[in-house]
Amino acid sequence: MFTISNGIILKGQDLQPVRENIVVDDGKIIEIGKEAKEGKIIDVDGAVVCPSFINGHIHIGDSIIKDEGYGLSLSEMVKPPNGVKHVALSNASDDDLIDAMRQSMKEMAESGTTHFIDYREGGIEGVKLLKKASADLPIKPIVLGRDDSFYGDDPDLGKVRNAIRKLLKIADGIAPSGFGEITSDVARLIVDECNRQGKISSIHVAESESNQIESLNEFNMTEIAKGVDAGFSQLVHLTNPKSNDLEGVSKSMQNVVVCPRANATLNVGVAPLNRMVDMGIRPLLGTDNVMLNSPNMLRELEFSLKIMSVYHKSYIDPKELLKMATTNICGFNINDIVQKSMIKVGDFAEFIVFKSFSKNPYLNICNRQETKNILYIINKKFSI
Fold first, then answer.
1. SS3 call for 226
2. What is the Cα 335 distance to its own chain's centre?
3. Least enclosed by CB within 10 Å: which of 142, 147, 176, 201?
4. pLDDT by residue for the chain (384 residues), tens digit each?
5. Would the CA dihedral through 145, 68, 267, 53 be positive or negative?
């Protein structure tokens, strides 16, 4: 048992700042209050105590080819089966993949991330590799699998259905690349089976303007509208929404993930976070392909804070931004699988203690923090 004392706590789902103490016993928060004190007392006077980070979208297998292919187009980099990423993954040994993924997970854990949602290539074997790589690390992967049988203009739906069911025996959900690679029948099978088993169905939508134009020309629907209509529980990117796209997402209450650094690196735009927040959408932040970006959420927060004011000509509320990396996942059905904690009594103890550099606790984290400024990382899997 121990007590984190005298910190500025960003408490609950809304990250309300309070100067209180946190008592932790057996990996859980058992008391929060000004006078709460039990066990070992750890005085962090003036420091900011924030819920641990969730990386809402990552391709951790890309860790084997960091910074390769810089300057290529989105399709050249990541479109299956011939993108730079997919060729590299198919040629890599299992040991090399595991070693590279472990390094990325260690970097995430050291910078305060306790959960990440991975788009896992390689079918069942790909899922098994990630689980093996993460087995003894203080971080929880939420693994969304995919299978080569999903792709093509005329897939064998029997094989697709069988692949989905096999994947869901060991994965937390299914995540095909995008609507440009799968048919509507495959999308329906994925969503229906994930819903039946209470698991996550996720897909990339509107990452580029060209994706949106192609979808409109072929189906008279944007990719975002297709994602809403198909009922995927999580939509990733939404970088280039059209007319009523965001209204549709807001009404559907689907989980959304945005990846500003990756989108900027690939020169496809930047998601309109301010508009999303104003419309009641609660996005998550993700670092996306490790081949493009460090998986450090602190870097994602600072970049997102500043690119919004440049790209969309308006400042983003730093509290709302920080919630995208911490507590926005709470309240969505998919958190039943993710199991991300807030700072509240009864939750698992998963939080970060940061040095304080300013009186604004949200900007203190989004604008000024680096991994070296973390005083403590409290994780339910490892006591202090």
1. helix
2. 12
3. 147
4. 999 999 999 999 999 999 999 999 999 999 999 999 999 999 999 999 999 999 999 999 999 989 887 888 878 887 777 788 778 877 889 999 999 999 999 999 999 999 999 999 999 999 999 999 999 999 999 999 999 999 999 999 999 999 999 999 999 999 999 999 999 999 999 999 999 999 999 999 999 999 999 999 999 999 999 999 999 999 999 999 999 999 999 999 899 999 999 999 999 999 999 999 999 999 999 999 999 999 999 999 999 999 998 988 889 999 999 999 999 999 899 999 999 999 999 999 999 999 999 999 999 999 999 999 999 999 865 443
5. positive
Residue 290: helix, strand or coil by DSSP? coil
Neighbours of 132 (CB within 10 A): 14
Rounded Cα distance, 149 and 136, in Å: 32
Partners of residue 4 on adjacent β-strands: 22, 42
Q: Three-state SS for 299?
A: helix
Please say whether the beta carbons of 107 and 295 come within 8 A.
yes
Q: pTM for the whole thing?
A: 0.95
119 phi and psi, to 5 degrees? -85, 105
